[in-house]
Amino acid sequence: MPLHDRILGHFQASAQTKLEAAGTLAPPIEQAARLMVHSLAQGGKILACGNGGSAADAQHFASEMVNRFEHERPGLAAIALTTDTSTLTSIANDYAYDQVFARQVKALGQPGDILLAISTSGNSPSVLQAVTAAHARSMQVIALTGRDGGGLAEQMQDDDVFLCVPAESTARIQEVHLLIIHCLCDAVDSVLLGVEE
Q1: Superfamily covering domain 3-192
Q2: Which residues sit opposite 21 in a β-bridge?
């Protein structure tokens, strides 16, 4: 297949995946945004974690909250648990890699805070351990995943929000995750700034 056609195919597949997921994901995205607004309004914070591309998504989300998205507003309390190399490497070295986020959640998380747990497959041990730690701290979880949701699906509690992209391709799932993150940022801003009708 010519390279040009392969590139066009990626654009088409990405657009199609997003369109097919929109109806399924819009209601839980709204639910997640309202959960975030409630937590932030009560003085809570959002902790975000993931590995690889999902680590980048966690950092992207936190930066949009702390700085701003598309409108001027005060910074919002969000922390990416993926950025402190001294903490990450010491936990991985002294304990195990699957504890790198959980130990941070145990140290930083408080009841009323939210964990944004991102795992394309839903089976990342470090993310699963973070969810367990969050629940133990009386935190609610917003999970971003794909395929069948993996182990994350099994960990969800009644007051958590499960955002599972109905796709198999890792690239397509991650592309929708980025769109979800932008939707969450926009929705949080819309509620806080009174843009919502």
Answers
A1: Glucose-6-phosphate isomerase like protein; domain 1 (3.40.50.10490)
A2: none
